[in-house]
Amino acid sequence: MQFLFLLKKVVTYFLLPLQLSLLLMLLGGALCSLTRRKGFGTLGKISLSAGILLLLVLSHKQVGIALLQPLETRYAAIPELAPGEPLPAALAECRAIVVFAGGVSNTPWLPATSRLSEVGLARLVEGVRLARLLPDALLILTGPAYEQDAPESETAAAALARAAESLGIAPERMRLITAARDTEGEVAALHALYGDMPLALVSSASHMPRIMGYAQKAGLHALACPAGYKIRPNAKFRWHEWTADISGLGNSTGGIYERLGTLWARLRGRTD
């Protein structure tokens, strides 16, 4: 199991846009240097050109939008609710809110909210918003230790809990899940601990389809509560949305990463 876990990480890393593009370019450069051997020069030019073209295409903002937006719009966000406005029925029945960790830095001299990644902070803020709408619900926070072979190091869940407390959530409302290594393990732990309790699951909008796939397969009674949207289209035309830059590459990377994760889960029968 440890070998498969590491293999998944390594293969995924080299299939992401930047790494794959650089790998093709490096391979092309190496092959071009072997021009004395028949065929290597042609193969090198093809590989080098493919790497450059792949990087340019996947850095275009419209390509990033096309890859990420279908994932982000799979589940609707929980709407903004005015004071006294009735909650959506599916949300009102939830007895716990689950916030999946999204990256925490090991910088103890910073306040907890500043240690969270942009992704993690967006998830936590949505979790806190829902916790205020559901004052009797538990707030469940997930995430293993920074160094999984060092049990004494602080867990991502603990860092989320301290950030949530600084945002006004009482410690007695919070529960931590720290042993699971990834999303699949966290969903399995939720099922083992809470069975068919109605749960509001909070994660990045692009990550939500994969989480819900795991949840449905595990038999969780789950409501998708997406947060941290990357694609927020403007009603009017903006020329800069048709350019290529690092944000386009980031969105393409996110879309490809989630699809690779979903494919891996389906191959092993973890989702339908």
TrEMBL record:
Keywords of the record: Membrane, Transmembrane, Transmembrane helix
Record keyword Oxidoreductase present: no
Protein name: DUF218 domain-containing protein
Keyword Transmembrane part of the UniProt annotation: yes
GO cellular component, one term: plasma membrane
Domain of life: Bacteria
Membrane spanning stretches: 12-34, 46-68
Location of the DUF218 domain: 96-242
One of the GO BP terms on file: Gram-negative-bacterium-type cell wall biogenesis
Lineage: Bacteria, Pseudomonadati, Verrucomicrobiota, Opitutia, Opitutales
